[in-house]
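Checklist before submission:
- one chain only
- standard amino acids only
- sequence pasted in full

Submission:
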Amino acid sequence: MEAKDSGIRINKYMSDVGICSRREADRLVEAGLVRIDGVPATVGSRVLPGQKVTVKGQEAPEGGKKDKVVLAFHKPKGVECTSDRTNPDNIIDYIGYDKRIYTVGRLDKNSSGLILLTNDGELANEISKAGAFHEKEYLVRVDKPITDEFVEKMSSGVPILDRITAPCRVQKLSDQLFRIVLIQGLNRQIRRMCEYFDYKVVALKRVRVMNILLGDLQRGAYREVTPKEMEELRRLLGLRDAKANAAAPRREQKPNEGSNKVRTGVYHAPSKPIRPKK
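Returned file contents:
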C-alpha cells in the first residue's frame, strides 16, 4: 500500500476520476497534455491531495470516492472506441452518458457488438490486462464457404503480427458464419487470422465479454451491468474483498455449462479460461 502523503500516480488518478484508462492516460501524459498545478506531468508523476490536474487545458475532477458505473453497450458499426471528443464518431458523444466513462478495451470501427464502458479504473485495468486470458466471444461472417480445414487451423493458432495466436474455440454455424472465443486482444486479430487463410470478414459482432452477454440488447442501446453480473465479474477478476474471499473459495470462469476440453474444430462453452500452450 502507498502512503497517503505520497500521492497517487497520475495515470491511476485519471483512471479513478473517470477521465480515461491508465493506458490512455500514459499516452496523454507523454504527449504533454496533462499538467499538475500548471507543471507538465511525466509518466510516474504523483498527484498529492489538493493539487489540480488539467487535461488538454480542462480541469479534471478531484480524486476521491465516486459512484462506480459499468455499462454494456451494443456498438454499431462506424462508432469508434475513443474518448477523443474531436473525433466525430467517438463513442462517448454517441452514448451521451451523464458521467465520465471510457471504454474497457476496444472494438474496431468496422465491427459491432458488446463493449463495456466504465469509470472504475481498477476494473478496467484488470479486464484489459495482457496475459489474463479473459474470454471474448464473437460471431463472424466471411465471404466464402467455411471448410473443416479452415476451422481446424483457426482453432490451432495462426501466425500473425510476428507471433502464433493462442489456441481458441471455433464452431461453424452455417455455410459462411462461425463462432470464435478468443483469450487475446491483438489488433484486428480475427480479421488478420481470416486473411491469412484468404478469407475476408464481411461482418463481425462481439457477443460476450467474460460473463457479460450482449443478449437482446438493441444496436446503439446500452444498459447498466446488473449487480449479479458485477458480483460474478469481480469474482472472476479476483476483486472480491478479503472477507468475501475467505468465505467463498474462488471458482474459475463458467459463463455456460459444457466441456472445457479444446478439440480442434469444435466449440465448447468453457468451464475454465482457455490458456495458451507453452
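Reviewer check: Residues 241-278 have pLDDT under 50 and may be disordered.
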